[in-house]
């Protein structure tokens, strides 16, 4: 099922591109780029050491650890194959390929526009204008051609000021990585968690208040241990997404939605208990040799269906009872075929 969805999604993308260009060589070229860019399963993969045998609350029951694969910083799981990690372009990369973290390369026949998007150029189309019969851009009113004559820029009167650009005629907006401060009207840089205990001095860069130190890109206080979380104030840990605070263990533990008969070793990563295997979204018991005429309810334990009983080998066999055998145990044991 999953494979079908993946294939379908892949082809929808290809078909969309193909219909834009009406060229099958373009589709082949795109397929090749996809394969090349996203087929390197090692790219963007990092490992993380986690307890191998956690208790049900996620705390380790012994000191054994295992290495699990996670996507490195700047990478994210590939939506069509979550075992792969692909570079993350957090601001999006429409009409382009995200070739490395935060680096979006525009497709051929596309160009980077004034608002940092990949947009098609003539003869396909012209941003804020139309392509004329000579394949040149003719601008809408209140727009002018960009210096390379590939798209049309809106006109703002005067300069837009620090960290702003002219986004539409007569209107200035904050550039990427900045947001409008409603109090001052200025464009302020954006930082993760607003730096926590510091000041955001440029996009993603925090200057910490005295006594706080930069850790995982934000300014944190002192916590004895705050693994998988951020130390918001001294000895107070706020767990990262996918983790929850465990009162007994005083630490952030991963959350799995379905992990019955298993250990949750990382957010959404459930490791099945011994004797269980992952089938679909749950850990199901394994009965060696199957459970003919019954149901596998625990490792190597079959519960027989109606009219069947377990023989000494643990197999479900049809019960042959006589009316005279009035207790179930006699019926079940003595007369198995
Ligand atoms: C992905 O890489 C493997 C091994 O390098 C290769 O056999 C396979 O054909 C590649 N897949 C695509 C879609 O190119
Ligand atoms: C954290 O500990 C350091 C060194 O012990 C100290 O200088 C600093 O003030 C502490 N930070 C906070 C927020 O208390």
TrEMBL record:
<feature type="domain" description="EGF-like">
    <location>
        <begin position="88"/>
        <end position="119"/>
    </location>
</feature>
<dbReference type="InterPro" id="IPR053255">
    <property type="entry name" value="EGF-like_domain"/>
</dbReference>
<feature type="domain" description="EGF-like">
    <location>
        <begin position="286"/>
        <end position="317"/>
    </location>
</feature>
<dbReference type="InterPro" id="IPR003341">
    <property type="entry name" value="Cys_rich_tripleX"/>
</dbReference>
<protein>
    <recommendedName>
        <fullName>EGF-like domain-containing protein</fullName>
    </recommendedName>
</protein>
<feature type="domain" description="EGF-like">
    <location>
        <begin position="255"/>
        <end position="284"/>
    </location>
</feature>
<feature type="domain" description="EGF-like">
    <location>
        <begin position="222"/>
        <end position="253"/>
    </location>
</feature>
<keyword id="KW-0732">Signal</keyword>
<feature type="signal peptide">
    <location>
        <begin position="1"/>
        <end position="22"/>
    </location>
</feature>
<feature type="domain" description="EGF-like">
    <location>
        <begin position="121"/>
        <end position="153"/>
    </location>
</feature>
<dbReference type="InterPro" id="IPR009030">
    <property type="entry name" value="Growth_fac_rcpt_cys_sf"/>
</dbReference>
<dbReference type="Pfam" id="PF02363">
    <property type="entry name" value="C_tripleX"/>
</dbReference>
<feature type="domain" description="EGF-like">
    <location>
        <begin position="190"/>
        <end position="220"/>
    </location>
</feature>
<dbReference type="InterPro" id="IPR000742">
    <property type="entry name" value="EGF"/>
</dbReference>
């Amino acid at each position: 099922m999953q494979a079908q969805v993946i294939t379908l999604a892949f082809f929808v993308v290809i078909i969309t591109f193909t219909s834009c260009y009406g060229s099958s060589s373009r589709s082949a070229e795109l397929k090749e780029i996809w394969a090349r860019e996203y087929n390197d399963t090692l790219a963007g993969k990092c490992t993380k050491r986690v307890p191998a045998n956690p208790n049900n609350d996620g705390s380790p029951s012994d000191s054994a650890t295992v290495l699990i694969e996670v996507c490195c910083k700047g990478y994210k799981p590939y939506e069509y194959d979550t075992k792969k990690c692909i570079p993350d372009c957090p601001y999006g990369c429409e009409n382009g390929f995200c070739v490395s973290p935060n680096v979006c390369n525009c497709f051929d026949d596309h160009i980077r526009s004034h608002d940092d998007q990949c947009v098609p150029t003539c003869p396909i189309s012209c941003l804020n204008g139309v392509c004329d019969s000579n394949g040149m851009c003719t601008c809408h009113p209140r727009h002018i051609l960009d210096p390379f004559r590939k798209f049309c820029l809106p006109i703002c009167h005067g300069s837009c000021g620090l960290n702003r650009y002219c986004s539409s005629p007569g209107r200035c907006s904050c550039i990427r990585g900045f947001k409008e401060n409603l109090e001052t009207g200025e464009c302020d840089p954006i930082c993760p968690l607003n730096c926590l205990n510091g000041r955001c001095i440029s996009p993603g860069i925090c200057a910490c208040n005295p006594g706080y130190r930069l850790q995982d890109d934000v300014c944190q206080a002192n916590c004895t241990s705050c693994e998988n979380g951020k130390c918001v104030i001294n000895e107070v840990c706020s767990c990262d997404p996918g983790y929850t605070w465990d009162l007994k263990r005083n630490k952030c533990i991963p959350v799995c939605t379905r992990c019955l008969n298993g250990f949750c070793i990382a957010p959404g990563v459930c490791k099945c208990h011994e004797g269980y295997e992952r089938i679909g979204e749950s850990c199901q018991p394994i009965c060696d040799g199957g459970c003919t005429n019954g149901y596998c309810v625990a490792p190597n334990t079959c519960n027989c269906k109606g009219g069947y009983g377990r023989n000494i080998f643990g197999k479900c066999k049809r019960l042959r009872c006589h009316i005279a055998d009035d207790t179930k145990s006699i019926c079940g044991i003595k007369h198995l075929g």
